[in-house]
Amino acid sequence: MARRMRKIIVLLAAVVVSAAAWGQVTKLESTVKYRPTFVDSDFGDIAKYVGELTSRTFELETGVCAQVTAHWDKPMTSDEFYRAFLGIARALGYVVVEDGLVTKIQLAADTPKDPTPPCRRYPVRNQVQNR
């Protein structure tokens, strides 16, 4: 019985140490800073990149398409970058719907539903900057 109790205590101690270590890893990840630059990048590719950084899933509606050039002068956390990306989506006229870890980016209701919409292009002079 004492031996079994000792195993339980060791197991509980290992769980506590693992949980504490995981908390430190999570804390460290939230302080990492990014300073991305995109030149004529596909909006969907940027969404994939943001999803990898934030562990979020992006669902882009058919027709959500743009070539984007963006640069930030100040480094940002993944959360700040996520918010900046949503700002880009809204500036392009898309509707953003957040549901837990899933972010849906849709065309506005008044956007004509063209079966093969042209992908909009935003040149370097229209850079989006985080202030």
Point out poorly predicted stretches: 19-28, 124-131
At the first level of CATH, what is the class of the largest domain?
Alpha Beta
What order do the strands of the largest sheet run in, or round the barrel if closed?
1-3-6
Number of helices: 3
Shape: elongated
Explain what the structure shows:
With 131 residues, the chain is an alpha/beta fold. It has 3 helices and 6 strands; from the N terminus they run αβαββαβββ. It starts with a helix and ends in a 10-residue tail after the last strand. Residues 19-28 and 124-131 have low confidence and may be disordered.
Describe the SSE topology.
Blueprint: H1 2-31, E1 37-42, H2 43-54, E2 57-60, E3 66-71, H3 78-91, E4 95-99, E5 102-106, E6 120-121
Parallel strand pairs: 2-5, 3-6
Antiparallel strand pairs: 1-3, 4-5
Helix pairs in contact: 2-3
Give a quick precis of the structure.
The protein is an alpha/beta fold and 131 residues long. The protein has helices at residues 2-31, 43-54, 78-91, and strands at residues 37-42, 57-60, 66-71, 95-99, 102-106, 120-121. The chain folds into two domains: 1-31; 33-126, Phage tail protein beta-alpha-beta fold, CATH 3.55.50.
Please tag this protein with its features.
Phage tail protein beta-alpha-beta fold; alpha/beta; 2 domains; single chain; three-stranded mixed sheet; 131 residues; 3 helices
